[in-house]
Design a protein that fits this description.
heterodimer; A: 182 residues; alpha/beta; 7 helices; globular; B: 616 residues; mainly beta; Maltoporin, Chain A; five-stranded mixed beta sheet; 6% helix
């Protein structure tokens, strides 16, 4: 029995290098992927003019309950612009007003208080992004999910429309699921 | 494509921003970073075994997977039995742990411990196992004196498609299949089946312990809706046959069905109702037989009161109809017993200074059939000076309510009895002080340290009865002090190191009035310390190499030598979801005992296992 097992192991080991060459390494840390998504989302969403206080106001991404992701996002936006505006990452605490924020990411650490935070953003032109199970039903617009060890996202269109945000078809095409009616 | 691969490999977030949406959506996440809970805010000694940890350990059963938790003592007794405990008192009838599988309590009212041979699920569908050492009684239940083991499977929506698993080795063979699919607009289901066949273990002199067993289990889970209104229905059925030298094979079987309904109310409030029915049957020819039906229902309501209070309150009712077939060797009297338990609990988490300082006060009142209502209070405080550090402390009173064994066990099965259950046996009481610190000094490292001290009273003892017999009493007391520590270091992009340590000092003694002559050894057999080291390495070509080194110090009585074991796993991932893994347990050790008295105890042999896992 053991001998047969060893023989099988040996033949498997011999096979291993073939897929090794064919397979590109495609992995990265979860927070980095999510941070990159947040930055990319800005290019596929249209904000109403009133979302910005002044023509030269920066594009501001608020982050609550996700310090590691905020650090990754700060690295990403360094030297980049969104809608020809400077980009600012603001680490926020629960309860802080959302004035001047165009995008708000609420991390898993605040999952228990998600409804509370989303209630403040409701109806405002703030793109809300979450990473908690069933967050869309609590009023989030975009929610990250895991599918086969990959980061994907679901989109709730009615919630975005309520905030007068237009989400491009290209973004929707990549979404795992698009909720069209509440 | 080449540039994309190179960029992603460097892992710099700035490079990722240059990828397209589609490319981002196709990036695989490194497993280490999925540990969102690595610095959880819970003011308790909690270790989480992730589904990925289980996969990379090569474990083929829940007890083997539990070896990954540094805050658990896991000793394999033979092919099917384990002694598992936290913070001491380990025994094959260890009785101070609460074990749940998807919210279903699986310890038996017979002895308040777990028949580990009857607890199984498709390990591939396990999302995580939360292991909480220390009292968890306020929220969980009366048996959570030394810890809670919470096995949580994935939602059906996360286990779609077909999964085939097959494995064979020198000690066991197993095969399993799972199929998931959609149910209407917002529902999903899965069904699974598994069979396994394990060889007998051997004693030190090479003779067979005649304990080979084969088992089969099937089950399903269906989830509907969203958090606004979610409904879960799940169930399992199993059977197993275990070889026994004489007078015949042991047979076990059972089934359960559970329904859970949760609804999100306005303002973040949440209600949940859960009910289940659980049948277990066990026939051990020559010893005893049991048919147990349990019905359990519980209710929970979480709400926010003002801006500072997060309140959870709820209640539960549990009913067991237990029928024991007594034998000449042992009897539970009365043979048929209806048992009822009820509980009410409330917990308030007060934000004293935002998220920085939180005080959690909780209490549970639990009634049991033997001692009436027991009161289980706890107070916890958590100070989080910044996002990467947490200091916590807790003071709890936990209760191990009597089991049938304490009150109704009689040996032999007919009078005159040599050993009799104690009609006045009371609950064992434990008062526990804990102090914990968790920190993440860098993005690559985190650790957790917990110090605990418990004062235990009214522990089980054997007191002299009439005519030289023994009666179960409460005349032992003692103190336990210990440390639990673990941490993880991402040593390189693809190399993670983890370590865990448990050290325990117990001072148990019989009370002055006790006439117990068997001593404190019956309370448990624990190592003074144990530690483990784990290395998880991702190699090019989607290969994985995992090694775990674990050491357990000698057990005092009955004496079991200390041992150090090495487990290893090498896995290849091929196209189309095929994974092939070679798993070795006790790699450098032909065999060693982990529990029990020589010379009749079983030795745990070196195991080699080849496993194929194919997700279609």
């Amino acid at each position: 029995m053991i001998f047969r097992l060893c023989a099988l192991v040996a033949s498997l080991a011999a096979m291993a290098p073939i897929p090794a060459l064919a397979q590109a390494e495609r992995t990265a840390a979860e927070t980095q992927i999510k941070a990159a998504f947040l930055y990319k989302f800005s290019a596929f969403v249209e904000w109403p003019p009133k979302a910005f206080a002044r023509p030269d106001s920066p594009f501001t991404i608020g982050v609550i309950g996700a310090d590691e992701l905020a650090a990754d996002l700060e690295q990403i936006v360094k030297g980049r612009t969104v809608l020809e505006r400077a980009v600012v990452v603001r680490r926020m605490r629960r309860g802080e007003p959302l004035a001047g924020i165009q995008m708000l990411f609420i991390g898993q650490a605040e999952a228990a208080r998600l409804a509370e935070i989303l209630a403040i953003a409701k109806g405002q032109s703030v793109l809300t992004v979450t990473e908690s199970e069933d967050a869309l039903s609590r009023g989030s617009m975009i929610n990250f999910v895991f599918v086969d060890d990959k980061v994907r996202f679901d989109v709730a269109l009615p919630e975005a429309e309520r905030g007068l945000l237009k989400i491009s078809a290209r973004l929707l095409a990549v979404a795992r699921k698009v909720v069209t009616s509440s | 494509m080449t540039a994309f691969a190179a960029n992603a490999q460097t892992g710099k977030p700035a490079d990722l921003a240059d990828l397209s949406l589609e490319e981002l959506a196709n990036l695989e996440v490194t497993s280490v970073s999925r540990r969102a809970e690595r610095l959880s805010d819970a003011p308790a000694s909690i270790f989480v075994i992730t589904g990925d940890d289980i996969r990379r350990s090569g474990a083929t059963s829940i007890p083997e997977a539990l070896r990954l938790a540094p805050n658990l003592e896991v000793a394999r007794v033979d092919s099917r039995q384990y002694a598992i405990s936290a913070r001491g008192f380990n025994n094959t009838i260890a009785n101070k742990l609460l074990v749940l599988i998807d919210g279903r309590t699986v310890y038996t009212p017979l002895f308040s411990g777990v028949f580990w041979d009857a607890q199984d699920t498709l390990l591939e569908d396990v999302d995580r196992i939360e292991v909480i050492s220390g009292p968890g009684a306020t929220l969980w239940g009366a048996n959570a004196v030394n810890g809670v083991i919470n096995v949580i499977t994935r939602r059906a929506a996360e286990t779609q498609g077909t999964l085939l698993v097959a494995g064979a080795g020198n000690l066991e063979r197993a095969a399993a299949a799972r199929q998931g699919g959609k149910l209407g607009v917002d529902g999903a289901f899965r069904v699974y089946g598994k069979v396994s066949d394990r060889d007998h273990t051997s004693r030190a002199n090479g003779t067979s312990a005649q304990d080979s067993w084969d088992s089969g289990q099937a089950g399903f889970r269906a989830d509907w809706g969203t958090a606004a209104g979610a409904f879960t229905l799940q169930g399992d059925a199993y059977r197993g046959t275990i070889d026994q030298a004489a007078p015949g094979d042991i047979r076990i079987s059972g089934g359960n069905v559970l329904a859970r309904w949760a609804r999100q109310l306005s303002g973040g409030d949440r209600v949940q109702v859960q009910a289940y029915f659980d049948n277990t049957e066990r026939e051990i020819p020559g010893t005893f037989g049991e048919r147990l039906n349990i019905f359990d229902v519980e209710f929970q309501h979480a709400l926010r009161v003002g801006s500072q209070h997060s309140v959870i309150w709820g209640g539960g009712y549990r009913r067991a109809d237990d029928h024991v077939s007594n034998t000449a060797a042992v009897a539970f009297l009365p043979a048929d017993r209806n048992l009822r338990w009820g509980n009410l609990f409330a917990q308030d988490e007060v934000a004293l200074r935002g998220d920085e300082l939180r005080l959690t006060l909780g209490a549970k009142a639990q009634s049991n059939p033997y001692t009436g209502t027991e009161f289980l209070p706890s107070a916890r405080i958590a100070w989080k000076p910044d996002a990467s550090r947490l200091v916590w402390s807790a003071l709890s009173r936990a209760v191990r309510a009597p089991a049938r064994l304490d009150r109704e066990l009689f040996v032999p099965g007919q009078p005159p009895f040599f050993l009799a259950g104690g009609p006045d046996f009371r609950s064992e009481i434990s008062k526990v002080l804990e102090l914990g610190y968790r920190a993440q000094p860098s993005r690559r490292a985190w650790y957790s340290v917990t110090l605990f001290h418990s004062v235990d009273d009214r522990l089980r003892s054997l007191e002299p009865g009439p005519a030289g017999s023994l009666v179960i009493g409460n005349e032992m007391e003692g103190k336990s002090t210990g440390i639990e520590a673990w941490g993880s270091l991402q040593a390189a992009e693809r190399w993670r190191l983890s370590a865990g340590l448990l050290a325990l000092h117990q001072d148990l003694h019989l009370k002055p009035g006790s006439g117990d002559t068997t001593g404190v050894a019956a309370a448990g057999n624990d190592p003074k310390h144990q530690w483990n080291l784990r290395s998880s390495l991702d190699l090019p070509g989607r290969q994985e190499f995992d090694v775990m080194l674990r050491h357990v110090a000698p057990l005092p009585s009955p004496g079991v030598p200390g041992y150090t074991a090495v487990d290893a796993r090498y896995a290849w991932h091929f196209e189309r979801g095929l994974e092939v893994a070679v798993i070795a347990q006790n790699l450098f050790d032909r065999s060693h005992p982990e529990f029990g008295a020589a010379p009749t105890r079983s030795e745990i042999e070196r195991g080699l296992f080849l496993k194929l896992r194919w997700s279609l």
